[in-house]
Amino acid sequence: MKVGILALQGDFAAHARALRRLGAEAVAVRKPEELTALDALVLPGGESTAMLRAIDRDGLAPPLRALLASGRSVLGTCAGLILLAHAVSRPVQRSFDVLDVDVERNAYGTQVDSFRTVADAGGAFPGLEVVCIRAPKIVRVGPAVEVLARVEGDPVLVRAGALWGATFHPELGGDDRVLTAWLPAHRAARNTAL
Q1: Fewest C-beta atoms under 10 Å: which of 17, 32, 52, 186?
Q2: How distant, in Å, are the alpha carbons of 24, 66, 79, 103, 123 from that of 148?
């Protein structure tokens, strides 16, 4: 299982460590040709405006759009979720518009307002601790998007088919259940066991 992590800016090293811990081959993606041979892709946390500038600078937008349309598994965390969203506000910013959610950037405050809490994730991820760092808030969820976890009523983990989005950092909390559930190899193994 080869999982790419967009490594232009942000939290890509922590994702690589977490994915390797789960047995995935985690590779840094910085060039367009590195997007072609992946089984899955992580768009990590960081600063979404800086990521968009780097994507444009390095010619990554067209192959990234192709990968996002391919049906391969993609996980966007924090800034990565912003890149996947349908609409972005505070301030308005462009995105790839592939996940039918609207988000507000930095909705919970600045870096000093970062927090840890336990999400309401029903039976899927009981006791899931989430780490929010300058987190976006999901303010609208489309009809085809499933909410997997909430904090104080707000969606913090969503999925629509192979696209997953988290307002928090599942790679930082020491709880690998979200990454395990998202990884295509783990899902396939679980489905065959049923």
Answers
A1: 17
A2: 23, 26, 19, 16, 10
**169 classed as catalytic:** yes
pTM exceeds cut of 0.85: yes
Catalytic residue among 15, 104, 132, 171: 171
Asked if residue 161 lies in contact with residue 6, where contact means CB atoms within 8 angstroms, the answer is no
For tokens 């930095």, the residue is 106
Q: Is 78 a catalytic residue?
A: yes
Q: In Å, how far are 42, 155, 171 from 14, measured between CA atoms?
A: 11, 23, 6
Beta-carbon-side half-sphere exposure of residue 67 (alpha carbons within 13 Å): 26
Q: What's the pLDDT tens digit per position in 108-161?
A: 766 666 667 889 988 889 999 998 877 899 999 999 999 999 999 999 999 999
User: What gap in Å lies between CA 169 and CA 175, rounded to an integer?
Assistant: 10
